[in-house]
Amino acid sequence: MKMDLKITMDLLKKSSFFHGLSEEHLKAFANTCTVTQIPKKRILFLEGTVASKMYLIFNGVVRLYRTAPDGREVVVKVVKPHDVFAEVVVFEGSDYPVSAEAIADSSFLEMPRKAIEVLLNDAKFRNGFIATLVERQRFLVERIQHLITFDVEERFFIFLRSHYGDKDTVNINISKQDMASVIGTTPETLSRLIRRLEIEKRILWEGPLCHILDKTVFDKTDPIENERLSGQDF
């Protein structure tokens, strides 16, 4: 399904991924986009299938995960509105290295690989776009550094701030198991951390709501760095 061109361009502009493109190239990119919607728990694509499209999510939440040899699902990233994902593998011509599942009703702009390949024939478009892809490729190194530099508690609050903002109360829309995978710990360790933070009266967890009782917990988090980290692709 096609969306109004201006609305599509406005959605692209909200993603940091497209900030390096000129208005002309942004319009050309918008013309390749179609809209798709999937309900909660629906799979968008599976690990190992041919990568034919990249996506920009503009409503909902998606988890990107890999299946371990023992059958466990390990979450690589939780994708939120205005994030782009699956872009690198499209241009490598490979298979998706992860699966994507909606954990809320979600809407996307789909960008087919073949249509984008046509745009890449324009040297200016190609140079700007490749520069963006190179920047995105740094994610794995940054994620490792992220896991090494910060302890579990710091990663927990970085996750909250980067995904939900600097709020007094946030509505957690993913499971604790998925959150544990994203911040690089086990569900058991995350549960113990939450209990300790509640005893210390720094947070209060009620159902899907997490109340931040002590706003100084965000003092060690850099909102610019958080956004840069959370906006990276798998």
At a glance:
With 234 residues, the protein is an alpha+beta fold. It is built from 10 helices and 11 strands.
Task: Draw up the topology in text.
Blueprint: H1 5-13, H2 23-30, E1 34-38, E2 43-45, E3 53-59, E4 62-67, E5 73-79, E6 84-85, H3 87-92, E7 99-102, E8 106-112, H4 113-119, H5 123-136, H6 139-149, H7 152-164, E9 169-171, H8 176-182, H9 187-199, E10 203-206, E11 209-212, H10 223-230
Antiparallel strand pairs: 1-8, 2-7, 3-6, 3-8, 4-5, 4-7, 9-11, 10-11
Helix pairs in contact: 1-2, 7-10, 8-9
Task: Throw out a few tags for this protein.
single chain; 234 residues; alpha+beta; Jelly Rolls; Arc Repressor Mutant, subunit A; four-stranded antiparallel β-sheet; 10 helices; 11 strands; globular
User: Overall 3D geometry?
Assistant: globular
Determine the structural class based on helices, strands and strand pairing: alpha+beta
Please report the first level of CATH classification, the CATH class of the largest domain. Answer: Mainly Beta
Q: What's the structural domain tally?
A: 2
Number of helices: 10
Strand order of the largest sheet: 1-8-3-6
Mean pLDDT, as a whole number? 84
Descriptive overview:
The chain is α+β, with helices and mostly antiparallel strands. The protein contains 10 helices and 11 strands. The strands form 3 sheets. Strands 1-8-3-6 form a 4-stranded antiparallel sheet. A hairpin with a 5-residue loop joins β4 and β5. The radius of gyration is 18 Å and the shape is globular. The two termini are 26 Å apart. Residues 223-234 have low confidence and may be disordered.
